[in-house]
């Protein structure tokens, strides 16, 4: 779907994304959205989260990009000299777009809300942009991600501000005390200059911590 860039209008695909409920809903939406995601969403909406998460990440590689999508966060990490980066996503169509960018060591089709078939303590860092949000992934996934992170691994995860408050992310981080340390949270606008008035003021929390 091509949108007129000269018009101030809403983004129907984003509204659909926020209304998802199940993994199958996610697969169906992103199968259709993959082709136009970078140009008609990320570029048109001045989507800042991948760059913000990459800037917030304070570790080295190997890094796991959770919900890699079309590879925007992988690109941002590569531009900063961080690697190697592996990515996982629920959508094969989105992963195909990420693969074409040539910045990932490996890309895996996986649902982060289920058990991950990844080596124990394989990563020195875990990052995610736009995955912990409405209709996508909740705080329980953080526990599973700790299992694939080596001691001392650095995390940088974006969490939609509304979702953070509504779905218990603060409680999960408190529950993980003793397994994580150095928790820092910064609030940032998701979009730099979005033409969609319904989402222009959307905010995210960039959550950073260290796996003990």
Please state the overall shape, judged from the principal axes of the Cα atoms.
globular
Task: Supply Rg.
Answer: 16 Å
User: Spans with pLDDT under 50 lasting ≥5 residues?
Assistant: 1-9
On the 0-100 scale, what is the average pLDDT? 86
Strands of the largest sheet, in order across it? 3-2-1-4-5-7-6
Total helical elements: 9
CATH class: Alpha Beta
Supply the CATH architecture.
3-Layer(aba) Sandwich
Task: Provide the β-strand percentage band.
Answer: 25-35%
Q: Give the termini distance in whole angstroms.
A: 45 Å
Quickly count the domains: 1
Number of strands: 7
Order of helices and strands: HHHHEHEHEEHEHHEE
SS-based class: alpha/beta
CATH fold field value: Rossmann fold
For the sheet with most strands, the description reads: 7 strands, mixed
Q: Helicity, in percent? A: 25-40%
Annotated CATH homologous superfamily: Vaccinia Virus protein VP39
Question: How would you describe the overall organization of this protein?
Answer:
The chain is α/β, with parallel strands linked by helices and 212 residues long. Helices cover 33% and strands 25% of the residues. The chain has nine helices and seven strands; from the N terminus they run ααααβαβαββαβααββ. Strands 3-2-1-4-5-7-6 form a seven-stranded mixed beta sheet. Helix 7 links the parallel strand 4 and strand 5. Helix 4 crosses helix 5. The longest helix is centred in the first third of the chain and has 11 residues.
Which terms summarize this structure?
7 strands; Rossmann fold; 9 helices; globular; alpha/beta; 212 residues; 33% helix; seven-stranded mixed sheet; disordered N terminus; single chain
